[in-house]
Amino acid sequence: MSSTTATRARSTTGTEGTRRDGRRSRIVAAGFLLPALLLLGALVVYPIGYSVQRSLFDRSGSSFVGLDNYLSLFTDDSLRTAVKNNLVWLVVAPAVATALGLVFAVLTERVRWGTAFKLLVFMPMAISMLAAGIIFRLVYEQDPDRGVANAVWVGVHDTFAESSVFPKARPLPVHPLKAAGDGAFVTKEPVRAGRPVRLPLVGVAPAQMPEGARPAAEPAGTDPGTVTGTAWLDFTRGGGGRPNEVDPAERGLAGLRIEAVRDGKVVATATAAADGTFALPADRADGALLRLPASNFREQYNGVEWLGPSLVTPAIIGAYVWMWAGFAMVLIGAGLAAVPRELLEAARVDGANEWQVFRRITVPLLAPVLAVVLVTLMINVLKIFDLVFVIAPGSAQDDANVLALQLYRSSFGTDADLGVGSAIAVLLLLLVVPVMVLNIRRMRREARR
């Protein structure tokens, strides 16, 4: 055999060996990948395929309806509300959480207690969505004695706006007072100096009486230079009292505001003492009508209806931001630690202030990290369910509805329709896919750099 023939034989043998090794490597790789592929097919591919198929059938699953279930997503009021609310969540919640995380990460970078602050902000991440929903359901309670949000809101409001003293007080027909039309009450006859005026009211619970109220008393003496009188609660506990008479067991309406009105103008004012007595100068009040202004009877301010139809979605978004701002802060803080300090210092040396450094240097350098956080939160809010289900009361759940909640209600509610539920699941998948594609492209670009 010539040397050339021998060389060809060795080459052929080597090529066949390489091919066998390649086939063996592919078989081994397929063997390792097969369990994962089977698991992926069982848990992901099959459910997606079945959901797409089921969305094309009616409630019972026996009749093909085509795209009717998808059309109902945009014709049914509750489903349209869910789509609209999901868009609000998608635009607002990730942006606010990312912005807060950026602010927290930047501001805590230079303070000694920054680590402790970051720990406090990140702690809500350790709480489940269900637990956070229960917490914020209590926070948003309408009753200021139970709801923290309204307790703070009412406290601030009452600091700047005087609350009413007797919100439900009113006169009886036998009393010398009548309604003035705007929530106020006015005497039926003009008052005269030297003749004590009686202003009895009812409708005030004993527990709501001012703390300094004392037993009602008639004015001392009859000074012709003043118009005097008594404003009191004309009610005796246990019965036995006489209407329009100041009985010993009845208490004065301490703090009640009284106005003397002549020709539609207020000419004098007074405030009832602890025993209900008051006095007005006769030169201005004689011959005038006495009015109890509506401010005495205005209902007490009970705060904001956080879980009402108009505010329930922003309130739940607030709870979500409380939970996820810490997540954004930690990721952005990690990216901020990798920012070259030389660039920041060079900008400050060139005369840039802190805002300019933040806007023109820090934010552009953190753009990849901000994109990761924003995309992650966008995917997360598209699936939001727990907070809405727990926080929104039954009366406002339709107004707070989102696609994941509607998916649950359509699939497992009292009027279940698995066709519509499957259509909602497919719609959620279609909404998530573009965000995932953008995220994958961004990661590939970062890997090529």
Task: Describe the structure in your own words.
- A hairpin with a 5-residue loop joins strand 1 and strand 2.
- Helix 3 packs parallel to helix 8, helix 4 crosses helix 8 and helix 13 (403-412) runs antiparallel to helix 14.
- The chain folds into two domains: 68-154 and 306-448, MetI-like (MetI-like fold), CATH 1.10.3720.10; 177-296, no CATH class.
- By secondary structure, the chain is an alpha+beta fold.
- The strands form two sheets. A five-stranded antiparallel beta sheet has the order 1-2-8-5-6, with no helix packed on it. Strands 3-4-7 form a three-stranded mixed beta sheet.
- The chain is elongated and about 130 Å long.
- The longest helix is centred in the N-terminal third of the chain and has 52 residues, at 3-54.
- It has 14 helices and eight strands.
- It is a multi-pass membrane protein.
- The chain crosses the membrane at residues 27-49, 87-107, 119-140, 319-340, 361-382, 418-440.
- Its main location: membrane.
- Residues 83-439 form the ABC transmembrane type-1 domain.
- Residues 1-21 are annotated as: Disordered.
Quick structural summary:
By secondary structure, this protein is α+β, with helices and mostly antiparallel strands. It has helices at 3-54, 68-72, 77-107, 114-122, 129-139, 148-160, 282-285, 312-337, 341-349, 354-365, 367-382, 386-391, 403-412, 418-448; strands spanning 177-179, 185-187, 197-201, 226-233, 257-262, 265-271, 277-281, 289-292.
Shape label: elongated
Low-confidence stretches: none
Radius of gyration: 37 Å
The overall average pLDDT, rounded, is 84
* Overall number of structural domains: 2
CATH class of the largest domain: Mainly Alpha
Main structural class: alpha+beta
Percent range for helical residues? 40-55%
**CATH-derived topology of the largest domain:** MetI-like fold
* Element order: H for helix, E for strand: HHHHHHEEEEEEEHEHHHHHHH
How many angstroms does the end-to-end distance come to?
55 Å
Q: Given the structure, what is the number of helices?
A: 14
